Amino acid sequence: MESQANKESITKEAKTWGMLCHLSALSGFLIPFGNILGPLICWLVKKDTDSFIDKGGKESLNFQISMMIYGIISGILTLILIGFLMLAAIAVLEIVYVIIASIKANEGQNYHYPLTIRFIK
């Protein structure tokens, strides 16, 4: 019951901004470093207005930084060919997890990405 009350206390605006913190990461497929800059800008603009946005923005940034590190490692491993498979897997995982996180944020739920290194606490 308490979690239902918490979901209802999150405003529609906070849910929208929380969702944007996650969805803006997909801009990285079009804009260099957009996967980091999108969530960073959303988070910096709205982090002080709502704790839900603050948590979602940090989570999104941590995931995107982690994916960038995994991508760099995979890029290096392309020299021994396994990196190509890893890069494809990372791209698919990033799209799937960002969509799941965006849907959860729109529902007013905090989402914790798997495989994430917590740089920003």
Give a quick precis of the structure.
This protein has five helices and no strands. The protein has about 120 residues and is mostly helical.
Helix/strand-derived class? Answer: mainly alpha
Tally the helices: what do you get?
5
SSE arrangement, N to C: HHHHH
Largest sheet: none
**Binned strand content:** under 5%
| Overall tally of domains | 1
Give the termini separation.
27 Å
3D shape: elongated
Describe this protein's structure.
With 121 residues, the chain is mainly alpha-helical. It has helices at residues 2-9, 12-23, 34-46, 51-77, 82-106. The protein has 5 helices and no strands. The longest helix is centred in the middle third of the chain and has 27 residues, at 51-77. It is elongated. The protein starts with a helix and ends in a 15-residue tail after the last helix. Mean pLDDT is 89; it is low at 1-5.
Task: Quickly list its features.
5 helices; DUF4870 domain-containing protein; transmembrane; 121 residues; MamF_MmsF; transmembrane helix; disordered N terminus; membrane
Topology:
Elements: H1 2-9, H2 12-23, H3 34-46, H4 51-77, H5 82-106
